[in-house]
From TrEMBL:
Topological type in the membrane: Multi-pass membrane protein
Protein name per the record: ABC transporter permease
UniProt key word Nucleus: no
Organism (species): Candidatus Aveggerthella stercoripullorum
Segments passing through the bilayer: 12-32, 106-126, 138-165, 185-204, 240-265, 285-311
Subcellular location, record wording: Cell membrane
Length: 318
């Protein structure tokens, strides 16, 4: 238990350090933007006096390190800044867009885990036979298929040709219209998850094969315990320890991929918000959304690391 608490404590200590590093990197990179926040906020028709007054009021004339310090202070208070002529809140835009991105990521994750587990287990149980060979080809195709290209193909097939799934339009709330929500999310979630399905299938297959070759499996089957029970209760549980670690890294891919998929399917998530910031010259909006996406990735990976520690007794005894 002491080792477990120590390992969890190390992850929690690393969290604020990584968060600080991300804020510094995002702020530093955005400082090279050629876009003047004063012009973005007031418009190109604003007078020079108004522009100077805006820069002075918002600290844009201060040294870079002073601006970064003010940014951190505001960030600790939940203030990500404002954008546009109406001085809209970046935090409000993130609060609206982030849930949609997380929903898309979660649905894609569920699809990836379910399909990869089924394919990986079947491939391991029938190793070197035709089901294993077929699943191996399928997994390679999945890995080699870019999500954005698959998204375009899905739109052409299911939306433009068959007219069974919408490629754009409003996203209904799940509680109000479950069928409409599922139809709207089906194509983007599947396009997002397919490359992860291929990668995770190979990892699960390898872990299952290694576990099936261990002595305790042969002993249990030799003692008369049905193979299906041994696989379900012991082999699968032990074999999934390694895929959990790989899955933690793939969650970051899903979040980043969701940002692109949202633009293709016109979902009002973080991707569309970033695109809006780029198209309309709102650097503070791009900065705030990019920062939240990066922090979300870090926090999720910390949680996955802690979950890995909890489910792997060998780590807790190190």
């Amino acid at each position: 238990m002491n080792n477990l608490l120590r390992l969890i404590g190390n992850r929690l200590i690393a969290l604020p350090i990584m968060v600080l590093g991300v804020t510094f990197l995002v702020f530093f990179l955005m400082s090279f933007s050629p876009i003047d926040p004063a012009y973005s906020a007031l418009g190109e028709g604003a007078s020079q006096e108004a522009l100077n007054a805006y820069r002075e009021a918002n600290g844009l004339n201060d040294p870079w390190i002073v601006q970064y310090g003010s940014f951190l202070v505001n960030l600790l208070q939940g203030d990500l800044g404002t954008y546009g002529a109406n001085q809209s809140s970046v935090a409000d835009a993130v609060a609206t867009a982030l849930p949609i991105t997380l929903q898309l990521t979660f649905i894609g994750l569920i699809i990836a885990v379910v399909l990869a587990t089924i394919l990986g287990v079947v491939s391991a149980l029938y190793r070197d036979r035709w089901p294993d060979q077929v699943i191996r080809v399928i997994s390679i195709i999945c890995i080699a298929t870019p999500s954005f290209w698959l998204a375009v193909l899905l739109i052409l097939l299911f939306s433009s040709t068959l007219h069974v799934l919408p490629a754009s339009g409003p996203l209904p709330a799940f509680g109000e219209d479950p069928a409409g929500y599922i139809r709207r999310m089906a194509m983007p979630a599947f396009a997002l998850s397919l490359p992860v399905v291929g990668q995770l299938t190979r990892v699960i297959r390898t872990a299952m094969v290694e576990e099936l070759d261990k002595d305790y499996v042969r002993t249990a089957i030799g003692a008369g315990i049905p193979k299906g029970i041994v696989v379900a209760r012991n082999v699968l549980r032990n074999a999934l320890i390694t895929p959990v670690t790989v899955l933690g890294l793939r969650i970051g891919y899903l979040i980043g991929g969701a940002v692109v998929i949202e633009v293709i399917f016109n979902l009002p998530g973080m991707g569309m918000t970033i695109l809006q910031g780029v198209q309309q010259n709102y650097p503070t909006l791009v900065q705030g959304v990019s920062l939240v996406v990066a922090l979300t990735f870090i926090i999720i990976n910390i949680v996955v690391d802690m979950l890995y520690i909890l489910i792997n007794p060998r780590i807790r005894t190190v």
